[in-house]
Design a protein that fits this description.
Elements: H1 2-20, E1 28-34, H2 41-48, H3 51-56, E2 61-68, H4 72-80, E3 86-90, H5 91-99, E4 104-109, E5 111-112, E6 115-119, E7 135-138, H6 144-155, E8 167-170, H7 173-181, E9 187-191, H8 194-200, E10 205-209, H9 210-213, E11 220-225, H10 226-231, H11 233-252, H12 254-265, H13 269-278, E12 282-283, H14 291-304, H15 313-316, H16 320-326
Parallel strand pairs: 1-2, 1-3, 7-8, 7-9
Antiparallel strand pairs: 3-11, 4-11, 5-12, 6-9, 6-10
Helix pairs in contact: 2-11, 2-12, 4-5, 5-14, 7-8, 8-13, 11-12, 11-16, 12-13
């Protein structure tokens, strides 16, 4: 009887310690969502080099699985459905999802700027007024590109909801690139490397970069689910640490980053290098750099009617993991 009691007591103790440590099991998996743009190469580099598995295995992660999404809107739907734990995603679709009940926070920055407005070669452009009457493809409502484009058009006296002024067609990057090459749309506003791909096909030219639309704007961010933050903070800290490692590696080794991206996506490596040379984006990890820009998105999306209530900084960010990862 004493033996059974002792075994039960030991089992209870082990269970309590497991719960206290965040319920980490040796075969636990981590699910990461991302999009196939050069904005999010940090994830691809960490995956390709085995850093996610290498860095997280000591914390009980037996498998790191990733899922690719065409844009941020479906990626955030997947996070709302508890299908991914970590997301490399645009700040704007994250804000839209947050306002509808997503339990998550931005824990690191990924990159700033890096999208271009590209028009077909035969279309003259001297300023925003030349866009009147055109058909422009960009990411779906609530995404970074849609939010930036609509706000910029409004600031320049163009009503993006009035087809007589301009028609915005929601598309993913692949469909939008195909559409402009086929002449089905007059222009696109897309993240890199799509502008470089279109240029390499002779189907368009960049007329405005996103940094001209909103200087130093935040673009992609690293988001962790609230459950992971609360129950397994040590894993979130290591995720941020690995993200920093991959970001710094890509900055120091851009040719290798281009090769990794090309291998992962099937894109021509020379076009990827051209994208790096032409874009106005910057890979970063420090979330403190983008706080003001992201909070500006909350105001813009509220004005556009994409979110129904203003959000506070603490609703959006948890920068503590970055601070710990840097110590």
């Amino acid at each position: 009887m004493r033996t059974i009691t002792a075994v039960l007591a030991a089992a209870v103790l082990v269970a309590a310690l497991t719960f206290a440590s965040g319920c980490i099991g040796a075969d636990q998996s981590l699910r990461i969502g991302y999009q196939p743009s050069t904005h999010q190469i940090a994830h691809m580099t960490a995956m390709e080099k085995g850093w996610w598995n290498e860095d997280l295995a000591p914390l009980g992660i037996g498998e790191v699985a990733d899922s690719v999404f065409p844009t941020g809107a479906p990626e955030m739907q997947a996070m709302l459905a508890d299908q991914i734990d970590i997301a490399y995603v645009g700040a704007a679709p994250f804000i839209a999802a947050l306002s509808t009940g997503l339990d998550a926070k931005i824990v690191a920055a990924v990159q700033t700027q890096g999208s271009d407005l590209v028009l077909r070669p035969e279309i003259d452009y001297t300023g925003p007024q030349d866009l009147k009457g055109l058909k422009i493809a960009t990411f779906p409502p609530g995404t970074i590109q849609d939010t930036l484009l609509r706000n910029w058009l409004i600031e320049n006296g163009i009503d993006p909801t009035n087809d007589r002024d301009l028609t915005i067609v929601p598309m993913g990057p692949g469909d939008a690139t195909t559409a402009i090459i086929a002449g089905q749309v007059d222009g696109v506003f897309l993240p890199h490397p799509s502008p470089a791909i279109i240029e390499s096909e002779g189907a368009g030219r960049t007329v405005v970069q996103s940094g001209e639309i909103l200087p130093n704007h935040a673009c992609c961010v690293l988001v962790a689910s609230g459950k992971l933050i609360r129950e397994q903070p040590e894993i979130v800290e290591q995720i941020v640490r690995t993200h920093i490692r991959a970001t710094e590696y890509n900055i120091a080794h851009p040719d290798e980053a281009a090769a990794i991206y090309a291998q992962k996506t099937g894109q021509d490596v020379d076009v990827v290098k051209q994208s790096f040379a032409e874009w106005d984006g910057t890979w970063i990890a420090d979330p403190n750099v983008i706080v003001d820009s992201v909070m500006e998105y909350t105001d813009i999306q509220y004005d556009l009617g994409y979110i129904t209530r203003p959000l506070a900084r603490d609703d959006v960010f948890d920068t503590s993991f970055y601070e710990k990862a840097r110590t």
